[in-house]
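User: Fold this one for me? It's Long-chain-fatty-acyl-CoA reductase.
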Amino acid sequence: MSLPIAPMVIRGNVITDNLIEVGGRGGDLTFLTPDAHRYLDKLPLGNPARLADLYALSFADILDYAEALGERLDLATNPHLHQACELSYRTAPVTPTMVKGSYLGLRNMLSRAAITEAVESTVGIKHLEGWVKQRLIDGTELEVRCFGARTLHIVAGNATSLSLLTIIRNMVLRSDAIIKAPSNDPFTALAIARTMIDMAPDHPLTRHLSVAYWKGGDTAFEERLYQPQNLEKIVAWGGYASMKHVTRYIQPGLELISLDPKRSASIIGRDTFESDASMREAALRLASDIGALNQKGCVCARVVYVQSGTDAEGLARLNRLGQYVYEAMLGLPNTLSTAPKRYDPALKAEVDALRLDDDWYKVIGGKDGEGAIICSQLPEPVAFAASLDDRTANLVPVDSLDEVMAAVDAYTQTVGIYPESLKDELKDRLPLYGAQRIVSLGYAAAMKWAAPQDAIEPLRRMGKWISNQIATPETSAAPWMRPSIEA
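Assistant: Here's what I get for Long-chain-fatty-acyl-CoA reductase.
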């Protein structure tokens, strides 16, 4: 049986020569792809003046292109997307129903209204369309504009939408992008790029996108590519080791925009226990935050702090909530969550060991690798909290929300909160400790690209913000007209 091919796309050209054999993450699929070393000189844009063709486009032109692309990203009719989806069943960290669901949703990201909203609320469309003027208090006239950049994107593979999000950001900023396809999603960005070529092969937006696969950590390759004469920015998603590796190449003229590893948490307030109905609502919402992406995302809940109380009655409330969460998790739609593709054996061993320590932990589920809810019987997370994955979460009882603050730090991305009224008490405190995103419980995976991410605004950071100062002695005090003084 012949191996599938992941071509290389370089600015409108599909390359299938000089193939080498590589393996996707997890070892489920071996595929062929062009040897990136053979095309190293072609990947960089080279002369930055070649970005000029993008500035012949208006923002409306970019929206027209995005809408047309969205119409073509139909899984039922697009052969590139269909093939990528089928192959991704084997490379993705999640199960086929979740992979297919994500592919079906791609076209929705390209709606005119959604892109306009995201750009207007972050960069501001007027800053992309021309120079925005203001007069300063000293009389200086200041113009500011956001320009595109030559950018390398090291994309994470735990969510299909990230490849398309990267392409959209590149289009609206009028940038040139090289996407390094991840080993657990080597086909999505390629499928979108090939669709763009089929749709408009000579369009500037098509001609400023490249997609290639190379093994991360290939120092001989990266030392030549990751240079300021080739790139101005690197946008990197990834784990601790990959981030540490990328930082070795950062130097003056080459900026790193780091979307680095995070963990998320949840807080369940005492009012949750006023009725069985509110407990069940909180349980369903929490199950969604745990189960989304099968807990593969930074946004997913792992440790949950529950203001149930730590006395016997409080622990009984906690354990009942845990049972409700487990039951709700098993009933989630299969496009959101399923039994894990592979339950981590090391994690399962840790969970199974806790079953023998039922004075301190109550373990609900997990015997069949479907995921588990661990209810601590003391106000401390499990020792392996940093390894929670595959729909395995830890509910920790607390008496006071002050106890939660010590667990929030700079690694804390998303905090889901229930009930909603509790947010007003916490939303001005949590950021002081490091929390970066606060959401209504159940909506952790409903990321809004119009919002900041990881406590930065990535779209603004991906652009180059250029200023033009206009001043004359008649409007602004001139430096050469300062009075002289004796030394």
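One thing worth pointing out: The first helix runs from residue 59 to 72.
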